[in-house]
Amino acid sequence: xxxxxxxxxxxxxxxxxxxxxxxxxxxxxxxxxxxxxxxxxxxxxxxxxxxxxxxxxxxxxxxxxxxxxxxxxxxxxxxxxxxxxxxxxxxxxxxxxxxxxxxxxxxxxxxxxxxxxxxxxxxxxxxxxxxxxxxxxxxxxxxxxxxxxxxxxxxxxxxxxxxxxxxxxxxxxxxxxxxxxxxxxxxxxxxxxxxxxxxxxxxxxxxxxxxxxxxxxxxxxxxxxxxxxxxxxxxxxxxxxxxxxxxxxxxxxxxxxxxxxxxxxxxxxxxxxxxxxxxxxxxxxxxxxxxxxxxxxxxxxxxxxxxxxxxxxxxxxxx
Length: 319
Description:
The chain is of the alpha/beta class. The protein has eleven helices and 13 strands. The chain has helices spanning 3-6, 39-50, 81-93, 143-162, 177-182, 197-200, 202-215, 237-250, 276-282, 286-299, 311-318, and strands at 11-13, 16-18, 23-24, 32-33, 36-37, 55-62, 97-103, 120-121, 125-126, 137-140, 167-172, 220-228, 254-259. The strands form four sheets. Strands 3-6-7-11-12-13 form a six-stranded parallel beta sheet. Strands 8-10-9 form a three-stranded mixed beta sheet. The longest helix has 20 residues, at 143-162.
C-alpha cells in the first residue's frame, strides 16, 4: 500500500482508533465567550470533522484562571462542561474524534485578572508580552507553585474527560509555561527543575504523569513539543530528541512537533509573510498597535517560506 493510501486507513492512538491519519492540530481560534466555547467554535470544529479529518484539536484550554494569556480565553473547569460537551458531541456526530489542548501561559501573560500579583515562570525576568499592559515582570515559581500547577493540569484533564473529549494535548511548545521550563533561555533555575535537559524536563514530566494517571486509560495523551525554539540559546534539536524519548518512556501516546517561542521568535512556526497590518487591526490596545507599527518590522523576524519546513528536524526526532 502506498503512503498516500495508508493515510486514509484507521490508526490506533492510545486507547482510541482514528478513522484515518489526518489530525487537525491546534491553532488558537479566538472564538471563546465567557471563557467557554462559543457557537462559532462549535461550528468551526464540526465543519472540520465533516470535512473528513480523523481528529480535530481545540486550541488553548487553560488549566487555571492564571493559565490564561488574556482574560477572555477558555478555562477548563466543571461549569464549562456543558458547553464543552456541545462541542464534542457536534464533532462526534460529524464522524471525527476531538482533542483539546491543556495549557498554562506561565510568565507570558497580559491577563489582569491574575489571582497572584505577577505571572510566574521558571525564573524571574521580564514579561515582554505584558509590558504595554503594565505587567512587566515575572516571578520565579517555588516548588509549591510547581506542584499546584501539576494538580491544575490533572483537574483540567478530568474536565476534558467529563466533557467527552477523546484526547488531550499537553502544550510543551511556543514559549508557554512548560516550554519556558524546557528552554535554557528562560529556565535559569539551580534546583532539580533546572540545569540540563533532564532537570528542565522534570516539571513537564510530572504534568504528563499526572494527566496520564487521570485519563491515560480512557483518553489519548499527546504533547505539543518544540523541535527548536528558533533562536540562539533556546531549546535545541538535540535536547528536543531527549525530551521526546523521556515522554515516550513516561507513556505519552504521541508528540505533535512544532517550533518557535512567541515572545522571542513568533513566526518561526509560520514561515512566509508577516501579517503586521492584520495584527494591528485586531489589537485592542492602542499602545500595542503603535508598538507593532513602529517596531514590528524590526522585532518580528521574517522566515522565508519553504514546503514542509519542519520535516527534516521531525525525522531527527523520529529517529
